[in-house]
Task: inverse folding
């Protein structure tokens, strides 16, 4: 496998016409050899354009693509040795699974005994043994997608593999298993991989590092843990996490000699490391806190400071937990908090919320202040 | 204004899709029909709405047999997976169109009022003058939903309306729908293969399996008391774990389920938990991944005498934010645990979890029916 570098890439569609659209403003990104990466962002952020530029299906307006240091910007897709797995499986119905897997090797003139051992290895890894001699037309879309993946990684000289929303056609209840096999294949073969998706769950479970794009720009390229814990701005805070980070409009106040975030009448203490970086005169400020970090009490914690009373507006079951949406008393500030699936809570109940200072992030003009 | 159906059958060629479905949908409920793709959800929805005829059986709206009432004469709205809007009309004109073509002669004022109200409710009031191609996917789907709602139908049928949307939009709409329809008089019938969508929005869920609704109940009841294994395993993220074991009672009266490898899952004492189960019989023991409590560093046996400790091998971890889904291998079976917080462990390590016997489900290995459940699992009066 190889390292892929995206250098100063800019792309404009229909340049010089009245339909001119900037799809990619300017992106720099290096995918290290053997690493699993994801490219994540909402529809129209430029991720598909970037994928096509890397694979060679599209010529960028400016910038270069380098594979192991070699400039391949002018090379057609077939000379880049980049495999692709598309939204819908692209495989040959006229061949059985074995022959589909063997196809790229036979094309490259690899001897049959070597082909056989290679097919076996892929088949073991992706658990395709039982269907090796079946016709793809008799298999569901998820198995076909695994075959497409197997065919992509079977050649020893593949530099990288690109996935374009590969789970689109996979039955929801089967996704967990398919995701795992794809990930295990990536690890086993040390594949340099780029996985394009709008689904953060797929991106974060597959990739060591995730690049998040918005409006043609790369906003943050980081580990899943950092994207979650230390978003560089409110967009990432909201975009990552399900539901996203609570972003609560606040002002700054001075209490007991320390800056506090003010949510209407409620003062929220902030961690000490933030204090010197804050300016009490700022406006356009928000505190960010993950729903899983908000502490919920159903009984009045009279003596404990820092609990704010709230009324429950909504209780949803999301991803194996309950998400409570509650409005802080005497404000219109809505806060989401996560509790266990069997936590007893009803709409309109009175609860008390607290925000542990270590888990609070501070944003000024949408940008993170004092990132850890 | 509820819907009741009796003994609905439908087959295509030799394939029996619906095999005598009986169902009652409560007035103003948000009822989700949940099943894997291809199980017949769309067929059931179309028959309920009157778009397709059943081979036999009866559909009642508010007690009235609807056999002879054409779909255009019913108070129904439809929303599909593909957003269907008129491309040459603005969002405003799209919303107004069902009222314009209606034979009820709505006044201009009434049309405007309803367009404004519906657009505000669905948060598309800022794009009323745009064409559908100028708005985002989520806004286009909201437009389609507004068109279905604008005639204030008694029944709204939605067939996977979120399937084509971006993840974040889907999350937002799920939340919006739950709020919107809890305040509306409309009865919503919603088909989806996504257990998560159904659990987030519905007041009631029906699970379609082998041509029949095998359980329908209020949302919490079907989630906490799934009466059959397929329901238990489908309505969960990740699915409920199931292991096979024999119930044994020792001399001191302690009961446990003994698994194939000799591991004992504590089942409490005689007369305490699971009193109705017979000893020396085999059962399927179910437990939710959320209820596997990861013992991080504690001495498991000492710290949790009353609970079972099981020690599976970690096969694979998926961490998303503050939640880790652990794929575990236990006695040759895949078992899942859901942990709050990242887990930094290598695949292949052996982890310990405690299991509270009062959070166990017991299923009959022959029929797959629920026969007992622990006392800490929420119960519902029948």
Result:
């Amino acid at each position: 496998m190889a390292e892929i570098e995206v250098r100063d890439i800019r792309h404009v569609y229909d340049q010089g016409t009245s339909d001119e659209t900037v799809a990619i403003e300017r992106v720099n990104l290096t995918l290290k050899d053997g690493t699993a990466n994801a490219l994540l962002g909402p529809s129209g952020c430029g991720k598909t354009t970037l994928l096509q530029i890397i694979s060679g299906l599209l010529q960028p307006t400016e910038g270069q693509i380098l594979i192991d240091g070699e400039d391949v910007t002018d090379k057609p897709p077939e000379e880049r040795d980049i495999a692709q797995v598309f939204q819908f499986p692209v495989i040959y119905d006229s061949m059985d699974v074995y022959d589909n897997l063997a196809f790229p090797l036979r094309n490259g003139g690899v001897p049959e005994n070597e082909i056989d051992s290679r097919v076996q290895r892929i088949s073991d890894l992706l658990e395709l043994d039982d269907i090796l001699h079946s016709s793809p037309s008799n298999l569901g879309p998820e198995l076909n997608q695994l075959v497409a993946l197997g065919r992509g990684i079977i050649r020893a000289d593949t530099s990288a593999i690109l996935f374009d929303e590969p789970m689109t056609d996979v039955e929801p209840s089967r996704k967990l298993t398919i995701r795992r096999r794809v990930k295990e294949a990536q690890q086993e073969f040390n594949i340099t991989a780029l996985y394009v998706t709008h689904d953060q769950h797929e991106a974060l479970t597959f990739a060591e590092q995730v690049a998040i794009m918005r409006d043609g720009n790369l906003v943050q390229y980081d580990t899943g843990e950092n994207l979650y814990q230390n978003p560089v701005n409110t967009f990432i805070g909201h975009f990552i996490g399900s539901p996203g980070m609570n972003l609560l409009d606040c002002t700054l106040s001075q209490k007991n000699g320390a800056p506090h975030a003010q949510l209407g009448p409620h003062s929220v203490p902030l961690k000490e490391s933030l204090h010197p970086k804050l300016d009490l005169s700022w406006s356009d400020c928000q505190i960010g806190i993950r729903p899983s970090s908000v502490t919920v009490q159903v009984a009045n914690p009279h003596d404990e400071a820092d609990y704010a009373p709230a009324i429950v507006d909504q209780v949803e079951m999301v991803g194996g937990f309950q998400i409570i949406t509650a409005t802080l008393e005497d404000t219109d500030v809505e806060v989401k908090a996560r509790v266990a699936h069997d936590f007893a809570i009803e709409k309109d109940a009175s609860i008390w919320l607290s925000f542990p200072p270590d888990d609070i992030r501070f944003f000024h003009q949408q940008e993170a202040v004092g990132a850890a | 204004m509820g819907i009741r159906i009796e003994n609905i059958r439908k087959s295509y060629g030799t394939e029996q899709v619906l095999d005598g479905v009986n169902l009652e949908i409560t007035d103003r409920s948000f009822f989700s029909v949940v099943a894997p793709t291809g199980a017949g959800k769309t067929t059931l929805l179309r028959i309920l709405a009157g778009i397709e005829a059943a081979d036999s059986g009866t559909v009642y709206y508010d007690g009235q047999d609807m056999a002879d009432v054409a779909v255009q004469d019913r108070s129904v709205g439809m929303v599909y997976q593909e957003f269907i809007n008129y491309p040459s009309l603005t969002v405003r004109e799209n919303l107004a169109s069902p009222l314009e073509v209606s034979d009820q002669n709505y006044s201009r004022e009434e049309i405007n009022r309803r367009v404004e109200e519906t657009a505000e409710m669905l948060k598309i009031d800022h794009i009323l003058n745009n064409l559908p191609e100028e708005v985002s996917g989520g806004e286009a789907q909201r437009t389609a939903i507004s068109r279905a709602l604008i005639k204030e139908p008694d029944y709204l049928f939605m067939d996977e309306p979120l399937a084509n949307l971006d993840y974040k939009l889907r999350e937002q709409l799920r939340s919006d729908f739950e709020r919107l329809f809890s305040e509306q008089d409309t009865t919503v019938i919603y088909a989806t293969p996504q257990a998560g969508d159904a659990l987030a929005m519905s007041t009631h869920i029906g699970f379609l399996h082998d041509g029949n609704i095998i359980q329908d109940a209020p949302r919490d009841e079907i989630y906490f008391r799934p009466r059959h294994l397929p329901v238990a395993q489908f309505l969960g993220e990740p699915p409920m774990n199931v292991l096979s074991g024999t119930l044994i009672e020792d001399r001191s009266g302690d009961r446990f389920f003994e698994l194939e490898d000799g591991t004992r899952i504590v089942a409490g004492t005689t007369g305490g938990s699971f009193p109705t189960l017979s000893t020396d019989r085999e059962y399927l023991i179910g437990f939710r991944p959320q209820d596997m409590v990861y013992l991080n560093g504690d001495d498991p046996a000492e710290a949790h005498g009353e609970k079972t400790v099981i020690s599976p091998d970690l096969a694979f971890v998926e961490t998303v934010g503050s939640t880790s889904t652990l794929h575990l291998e236990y006695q040759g079976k895949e078992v899942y645990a859901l942990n709050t917080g990242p887990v930094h462990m290598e695949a292949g390590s052996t982890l310990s979890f405690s299991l509270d016997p009062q959070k166990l489900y017991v299923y009959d290995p022959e029929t797959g029916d629920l026969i007992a459940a622990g006392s800490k699992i929420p119960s519902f009066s029948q």
Q: What stands out?
A: Chain A has a mean pLDDT of 92. Chain A has two domains: 4-239, 246-296+306-369. The longest helix of chain A spans residues 112-126. Chain A is about 20% helix and 35% strand.
